[in-house]
Design a protein that fits this description.
By secondary structure, this protein is an alpha/beta fold. The protein has 4 helices and 5 strands, in the order E-E-H-E-H-E-H-E-H.
Length: about 120
């Protein structure tokens, strides 16, 4: 299941993933919100609170994740990955070496810090 997170500035696309994530909900919730932010601001600030593993993303949801990642490849500005799966946080930080923008990972207990960082707009 994916759901948008409240309490973020309008330039941030923020969502929570938990349990099983399906292609349709990812497209209707996450992709729609990222497209809105990109259209309105030209750049995308993004936070995902991962309370599930990628093994719980359906194949279609994972494909949609890849599609939206490449669709806005040059528009990523700040990406906060909040997860207690340390390996996943490290993977995203490695990916950050080859994509535009800055990726930071945070454990779930540091969610407020991640929210503050991704919400900053210069």
């Amino acid at each position: 299941m994916v759901e948008l997170l409240d309490g973020f500035p309008s330039h941030v696309a923020a969502y929570r993933a938990r349990g099983r994530v399906h292609a349709d909900e990812y497209r209707q919730v996450v992709m729609r919100r990222i497209d809105e932010v990109a259209a309105a601001y030209g750049k995308v600030d993004f936070l995902v609170l991962l309370e599930t593993g990628f093994q719980n993303y359906s194949p279609g949801a994972f494909v949609n994740y890849c599609v939206i990642s490449f669709k806005h490849f040059t528009r990523w500005r700040r990406m906060a990955i909040v997860t207690d799966q340390a390996w996943l946080g490290h993977l995203y930080e490695c990916i950050g070496l080859v994509v535009p923008g800055t990726i930071r990972s945070y454990p779930i207990d540091r969610f407020p810090e991640a929210k503050q960082w991704v919400s900053y707009h210069s």
